[in-house]
Amino acid sequence: MYLQQLSVINFKNYDEAELVFSEGVNAFTGNNGAGKTNLLDAIHYLSLCKSYFNPIDSQQIKQGAEFFIVTGMFSKNNQPEAVACSVKRNQKKQFKRNKKDYQRLADHIGFLPLVMISPYDISIITEGSEERRKFIDNVISQTDNHYLDELITYNKILNNRNALLKQIADTGKFDPGLLEIVDEQLCTSGNRIFERRRNFMDGFVEIFNRHYDFISDNAERVELVYESQLLTSSFEQLLQNSFSRDKALERTTAGVHKDDLQFNIHGMPMKKFGSQGQQKSFLIALKLAQYTFLYQQKGFKPLLLLDDIFDKLDDNRVTKLMQMVSNNDFGQVFITDTGVERVEQVFNKIGVAVKLFKVKGGAIDA
Ligand SMILES: Nc1ncnc2c1ncn2[C@@H]1O[C@H](COP(=O)(O)OP(=O)(O)OP(=O)(O)O)[C@@H](O)[C@H]1O
């Protein structure tokens, strides 16, 4: 699967642009603020129906304009697939495949799988556990629509339980029968999510280790560990044990909504003990493992978007990484960098052809 052609109208800092891509490596180069990342984001729209960076669609409309349109012509299983996303101010987003409107955007997720690696991903390491849960959930959701539905169900039940705890605190009245029903629902849904995450992580950790060792040339020992309270106790038991605390705090303190991922380097937390380059390498290995997982599940190669990829990495890691993403295990790749010479140099060194797009103030010079 690959993107043959992209066109944007009134998208961020672009009036109009049309680009024809290579099936291999494509690079957007230009100064800061030129519009390189905006092109990656346009591609992200076509795959995941939304921006990677900003959840508010109307903010992607070019300042002063009334709408934006992003269109892509893909080739999938040698069939053309035309995808178009348009957003008008104060109107519902429209998303079409081969001129037909989607009723549910969720039905498009996973059809054109994509992995983005961006400097903003550092929040997966530095921020709270929610970011890491979001990462696992995004990866699984692109291969399993039911999983997304299960998450929605779980969160609804969780909200119900929290409302009930609040009601108990407010009124002092407690209906054990009602709580029992809600607990049972929460356990059923939570157990499904836990099993799915655990199964996923079993295979994922091995892929991650392989990628990290390759990029770093085995320079350091890192660890990725799935943490869940359900690994050591049943959900039912957890709810029983935490009931007094839940009542006092008026919210549910145990469950899969507390799951986390532990990132270590030489046995210490990556967040505190990893250098910037090591943290970036860790994130890249994590995202490339996502890529490999998607590829295995889908049976065809997703798109790979690498934003500002060379920053903070030493020359060895840059070479290793570019070698890796231009080999047969990867398909179409898009990268951004400020220096055209650097891109040319890196790809000359490994003998891989790259199609260059020079970006300047929202215009392209191919
Ligand atoms: N809705 C919008 N309307 C007009 N311009 C916008 C809009 N949203 C973003 N921009 C502009 O897009 C530019 C940023 O583009 P982008 O993030 O693609 O830059 P970049 O080339 O990747 O830069 P860097 O090298 O700094 O990462 C900024 O100048 C910003 O003001």
Automatic annotation (TrEMBL):
Residues that bind ATP: 30-37
InterPro entries named in the record: DNA-binding_RecF, DNA-binding_RecF_CS, P-loop_NTPase, RecF/RecN/SMC_N, RecF_2
Keywords: ATP-binding, Cytoplasm, DNA damage, DNA repair, DNA replication, DNA-binding, Nucleotide-binding, SOS response
GO cellular component: cytoplasm
Ranges of residues in domain RecF/RecN/SMC N-terminal: 2-353
MF GO annotations: ATP binding; single-stranded DNA binding
SUPFAM superfamilies found in the cross-reference section: P-loop containing nucleoside triphosphate hydrolases (SSF52540)
Classification via Pfam families: SMC_N
Biological process terms in GO annotation: DNA replication; DNA synthesis involved in DNA repair; double-strand break repair; SOS response
Cellular location(s): Cytoplasm
Annotated family: Belongs to the RecF family.
Biological role: The RecF protein is involved in DNA metabolism; it is required for DNA replication and normal SOS inducibility. RecF binds preferentially to single-stranded, linear DNA. It also seems to bind ATP.
Protein name: DNA replication and repair protein RecF
Gene name as annotated: recF
